[in-house]
Amino acid sequence: MKRFQPLAVLALLLLTACNRDPLVGRWERIGDDFAGTIVQVGATGKSYMAKLVDVPEKLKTRGFARGEVKWRELVLVSDSEGVRKYKGQDLGKSIPREVQNPKSKIQNPTESRYSSFALEMRADTAWVRVFQNDLDVLGVAQIWRKIK
Question: N or C: the chain end with fewer CB closer than 10 Å?
């Protein structure tokens, strides 16, 4: 009987590995001013989230820090012909106009908020589009490459 326990554990591990979503892992942002940003995507119940692992200096000046949740409530909405589409919430930060004034007495130099976003993944590349009000695209598309 004890001989079958290791086999059962191995079978369960293989089954779990085969069912793992290809989104899970480390992703690096490429091709823009925030290139070098790295997030770790993991499962959280029925959705996924991504925490910042590596934060370039340009993002640090905007108030981003290692360990922050960059993407949350990320769910798969379609999987067809090698294209997986997800939707979720993306952490954005902005510097209020008052802070840009050197005489400002505001203590917190950044404002944080989560906005809706869509992620489209093909193989090991993902394109992210953040929405201001569920309709208008905010900024440009981000390109992410899976590194692990």
Answer: N
